Amino acid sequence: MTAHDERCGRMDLPPALADEIAGEGEDWTSTGRVGRLWERDGSVWTGNGEGQWLGWLDPPLPEGAESARLARLSAHVRREDLGDAALLGMGGSSLFPELLRRVFGRGAGLNLHVLDSTDPSQVRAFESSVDLDRVLFIVSSKSGTTLETSLFLRYFLDRLRARIGPRAAARFIAVTDAGSALDGLAASEGFGAIFHGEANIGGRYSALSYFGLVPAAVMKLDVDELLARARAMVAACGAETLADDNPGVQLGLALGLAAQSGRDKLTLDVSPQLDGLGAWIEQLVAESTGKKGRGLIPIDGEALAEPSAYGDDRLFVSLRLAAEHDDEREALLDRIAAAGHPVLRYDLRDAMDITGECFRWMFATAVAGAVMGVNPFDQPDVEASKVATRALTDRADDAAGLRGDGGPVARHAFETGELTAWVDRPYATSLRRAAGRAPTLDGLLAAHVRQLRRGDYAALLAYVQLNERHRALLDGIRHDIRRATGAATTVGFGPRFLHSTGQLHKGGPESGHFLVITVREKKGGDLTIPGFRLGFAAVKDAQARGDCAVLAERRRRCLRLEIDGDVEGGLDTIATLMSAVLS
């Protein structure tokens, strides 16, 4: 069944799912649930305090004094003759700015760069990409205590002080909640500006607040027009709009009901200029719904294939700029829909529609959470990895960094000069049984991927620099896995995915198979953090080991491969081994 509405998009749905959405929409209308959502009624969800996290429903940044602050910031940047803006942040604080950077490129203002990785090669590459003599740093953390952001600040404040002396702090601005540790530090150090977030807006719902608008202002984008597009979607999703005509409700019902029927692999197909929207949606949906053993599993960046490549666990969503219409891609989506898969399509008139689209997805994710019976505004399983990471860093030796046998997991009996395999004790038993008494590395890999079953997904989680070559190698591995097994695949770069899909991995469905890739840095490869006992590589290693430990505690199927030094060579070896075992 096909439904097409300019605001609600085009929905090609199997008849059973279409009937479910229609019935649920009637129920939402008859029970006044849309109005109750707008009234901040937590009983729409689980009644566990959801109402206090709905500040994002308010019209984004009303015109007046706050909007004028952004205009003054933009003017200040122009007067100071700055060239680069360097945003330091994680998760919700970094993904929307990164989306703006990808969608708009370099605007009339500063050239925006985003750092959201503790990989020392990534930090070095980031530093070399900006002109320290003409850079403005944006330190963005809602809590004000985000580990990675705090370490980035230590490092770059020291670097800038060494370059320009006591004037360095004035080149930093903070975006954080009032009263946070970052707020206090920014005030005491004399940061150039401090922008406060709203206490009733969670990080992944903060795109249309200062966390997204400050980067837009320094890029000198048309903030007024971006906000106008967002307000138009806010109105379209309003309390007076019937569920059948409400673009946020319609998408949310489709997401939630599809997940409940087993179609929990939200497969995103995004046009080239919107690259980055998939990663933003991935974080929003995964962290909001992945709990209580439930969740939508966003599949971003997986190449679209013919219908025969997919099982019945898929829901497809296509997001396109009107100027990027692709007849071949549309024909492929038509074939996928004709094969019985639900396909939703949304067209953006131009890049400025990005803010309205983000609001649609925030509203829809809240609706999907209600349908699935979860609180879409908490992240109960994220703290466990932070605790495990702190335990490792607290006992690490100053000079040697992390020692021991790989953390709270046991080494499975295989090691070469290039790769070492690590696996937790419970999972080691099943892998040993499948791989044989004298397992080889390819035997372990084969045993790991052969356990993929219908409805499972394979997650490649690589704690390496995010660059084109590394992504291409990982994409090759994921596509080999999909071709051989039919399973959905995801790729995450650590530690950034911990602030995105990490909640889903630990709290969502027990259908994930995790291949974690870490690096034993070459001697001299780490990067010192001023005033901190460990370097960036040691912190990254602790984050990887800590998360693997929590995955093991949750009985998730997790195999970790450690590369000795040469990242590209190690990834190439893993790709070759994977191709061989899958053939």
Question: What are the key terms here?
Answer:
alpha/beta, Rossmann fold, 3 domains, six-stranded mixed β-sheet, 20 helices, 17 strands, globular
Tally of structural domains: 3
Question: Structural class from helices and strands?
Answer: alpha/beta
Q: Which architecture of the largest domain would the CATH scheme give at its second level?
A: 3-Layer(aba) Sandwich
CATH superfamily of the largest domain: Glucose-6-phosphate isomerase like protein, domain 1
Level-1 CATH class name of the largest domain: Alpha Beta
Q: Could you please say which CATH topology of the largest domain applies here?
A: Rossmann fold
Total number of helices: 20
Principal-axes geometry comes out as globular
State the end-to-end CA separation.
38 Å
